[in-house]
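Quick start: what a row looks like.
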Amino acid sequence: MRVEVMTRAGCPSCVTAEADVARICGELGVEWAAVDVDGDPELRAEYGDRVPVILVDGAEHGYWRVEEDRLRAVLAP
């Protein structure tokens, strides 16, 4: 599994989401990455109003905040 956090610079909620995802994925041994939506016009058009957006294996899992129990459930082996 791979988790991505769609973010943008200057977004306090994105910083919090990245920290939450880093902690959870670190504990579970799951790869994750942050992607700045402002670096790609298509990503900015898709996610720009809703960052942070959490994707799991390319599918949207949630946005604006990390639902820890729900994310752990989907990532658990």
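That is the whole record. The mean pLDDT is 96. The first helix runs from residue 12 to 28.
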